[in-house]
Write a structure and sequence with these properties.
Blueprint (H helix, E strand, L loop, with lengths): L3 E6 L2 E6 L10 H17 L4 E6 L4 E3 L4 H4 L4 H19 L5 E5 L2 E3 L1 H8 L2 E5 L3 E3 L13 H9 L1 H10 L3 E2 H6 L5 E3 L1 H16 L3 H16 L2 H14 L4 H11 L10
Parallel strand pairs: 2-3, 3-5, 4-6, 5-7, 6-8, 7-10
Antiparallel strand pairs: 1-2, 8-9
Helix pairs in contact: 1-3, 3-4, 4-5, 5-6, 9-10
């Protein structure tokens, strides 16, 4: 059985975690297959937006596979955390926008993978949380680092230390997700957003992602320096020349990704 289902339509690639019987829990095999699919998208397709979601109506990703973790020793746990961190970093640094369509439980590693995505939309039945301390663990796929950036240190500490689940509406209120819609409208709403993104220059989108990521990992001054370099570098591209000319000439731009 394929653990990651792939569907491409209108330059949008939807990756669906396909372990519904296990609430789409993450094990090393799922992580490896997801990495392969992401590499394939970059190397062999003309995809402009990626959507990540979970199979079924109950879970986006309900967390890491606890049964697999229960058998790990220290070295294996370090390797598992390292792999998960590298993969979430890959998603965060992906030059193509990655949108999480969160359809149900997004707990532990699921919440961490959602946070690595550039944009997060959730269904009304979505549930978020970092329950690791209740298992004698901590978040291991970047949760202790990304959550404070998204919701602030105090709220992040409450979620990470309290191990309580939060509803989709609360997640939206605190800034963990961008929007909440009905389950039936989740994918159509995310696809509508993807289509609006695709209308814009791919090279400018990639530069924006890199610039936003820069300040979140360093400081404002370094972030501004990155933004300045990305901004000026675009003036050597065909898409920037096309976009500016189209505005002056009062016509729609024809971006080529160059």
């Amino acid at each position: 059985m394929e653990m990651i289902l792939v569907e491409i339509e209108n330059d949008i690639c939807t990756l669906t975690i396909n372990r519904p019987e296990q609430y789409n829990a993450l094990n090393i095999d799922v992580l490896k297959e997801l990495e392969l699919k992401l590499n394939w998208i970059l190397d062999e397709t003309s995809v402009r937006v990626v959507i990540i979601t979970g199979k079924g109506e109950k879970a986006f990703i309900a967390g890491a596979d606890i049964h697999a973790m229960n058998k790990m020793n220290e070295k294996e746990a370090e390797s598992f955390s390292n792999y998960g961190q590298k993969l979430t970093l890959k998603i965060e640094e992906f030059k193509i926008p990655v949108i999480a369509a969160i359809n149900g439980f997004a707990l532990g590693g699921g919440c961490e993978f959602a946070m690595a995505c550039h944009i997060r939309y959730a269904s009304e039945n979505a549930v978020f949380g970092q329950p690791e301390v209740g298992l004698g663990l901590i978040a291991g796929f970047g949760g202790t680092q990304r959550l404070p950036h998204l919701v602030g240190k105090g709220m992040a500490m409450e979620i990470l230390l309290g191990a309580r689940n939060i509803t989709a509406d609360e997640a939206c209120r605190i800034g963990l997700v961008n929007k909440v819609v009905s389950l039936s409208e989740l994918i159509p709403t995310v696809e509508k957003l993807a289509i609006s993104i695709i209308k814009n220059a791919p090279i400018a989108i990639a530069a924006t992602i890199n610039s936003v990521n820069s300040s979140s990992r360093t400081n404002l001054i370094q972030g501004l320096t990155c933004e300045q370099k990305e901004f000026s570098k675009l003036f050597t591209s065909k898409d920037t020349k096309e976009g500016l000319s189209a505005f002056v000439e009062k016509r729609s731009p024809n971006f080529t990704g160059e």
